[in-house]
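Email to the structure team, subject: precorrin-2 dehydrogenase model.

Hi all, the expression group asked for a predicted structure before they design truncation constructs. Nothing fancy, just the tokens so they can compare against earlier work. One-line instruction: predict precorrin-2 dehydrogenase, return tokens.
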Amino acid sequence: MVAYYPVMLDLNGKRCVVVGGGAVAERKVRGLLAAGANELIVVSPQATSGLEQLSAEGSILLKCREYLESDLFGAAIVFAATPIRSVNDAIATACRAAAIWVNVADLAEQGDFVTPAAVRRGELLIAITTGGASPALTARMKRELEALYGEDFAGRLALLRELRERMLAREPDEARRHAILRLAAEIVAVGNPAEVRADESIEDWIVKLGQTVDGRHT
Ligand SMILES: C[C@@]1(CC(=O)O)C2=NC(=C\c3[nH]c(c(CCC(=O)O)c3CC(=O)O)Cc3[nH]c(c(CC(=O)O)c3CCC(=O)O)/C=C3\N/C(=C\2)[C@@H](CCC(=O)O)[C@]3(C)CC(=O)O)/[C@H]1CCC(=O)O
Ligand SMILES: NC(=O)c1ccc[n+]([C@@H]2O[C@H](COP(=O)([O-])OP(=O)(O)OC[C@H]3O[C@@H](n4cnc5c(N)ncnc54)[C@H](O)[C@@H]3O)[C@@H](O)[C@H]2O)c1
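Reply from the structure team: attached below.
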């Protein structure tokens, strides 16, 4: 068992290399594109129609041939997603030697990281893993969390970001600022953000939040 450390990577301008062109490779590619990867190379003699379509659209660079070690040049992260153990092993070994982060689809423990399932709602990103114990449970929990945190959470979070930026710019009293931001998060987490701001501007809301927080202290 590995005690994984969670991080959220910014892949903008980082070269990502996926070796393999089957269903697993396509899933990794779609996850990378959802994360904004814009330098994505896929190496595989055969590719799914989905990958071919992404290549035709210019979303990925598809190299239709077998993996070569030179494919790793300049890569920040690599996914070894072929069904051939000796090929995945060679990729993992070369990445280790070059200090490149590698994911190994058929032998997770040989890689540096595993791929979590992701629920995205605007800036909210929930990543789920069972560390390889049960990918099926991971997929199921993703569906549960999608239902729990609906599409509207993107808007709720955008509202909280706007509020936070305004408060950071104008409220020097740290304790009061924190109290207001925590109260707003509580309201937005349980209520409908449209109701929160149905007939008031964010400025009116700030006044109301401030009054509630000040009332708590007196
Ligand atoms: C989360 C997700 C992300 C993604 O891939 O994008 C993901 N697997 C997903 C689905 C899924 N994968 C498999 C099934 C069939 C049911 C089952 O086997 O349980 C299902 C379920 C389904 O399809 O519904 C089969 C499977 N998976 C791995 C092996 C190889 C092995 O264990 O050795 C085999 C057996 C191959 C065989 O039997 O031949 C390995 C890995 N799969 C991982 C990630 C990593 C740890 C995940 C974790 O535990 O949290 C890890 C360790 C390595 C890695 O890939 O990083 C994605 C859901 C995304 C979503 O729903 O959005
Ligand atoms: N991590 C996961 O989520 C997960 C899930 C299921 C299976 N797996 C594992 O991943 C492997 C791949 O699964 P799949 O369903 O995508 O397989 P697949 O058979 O559909 O596709 C394999 C791909 O690898 C390519 N390939 C073969 N040799 C290559 C080489 N030398 N260089 C580059 N590409 C090469 C093929 O062209 C093909 O596109 C499975 O064998 C299994 O071990 C992992």
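Helices lie at 23-34, 49-57, 85-98, 135-148, 153-170, 174-190, 193-196, 202-217. The chain is about 50% helix and 15% strand. Ping us if the truncation boundaries need rechecking.
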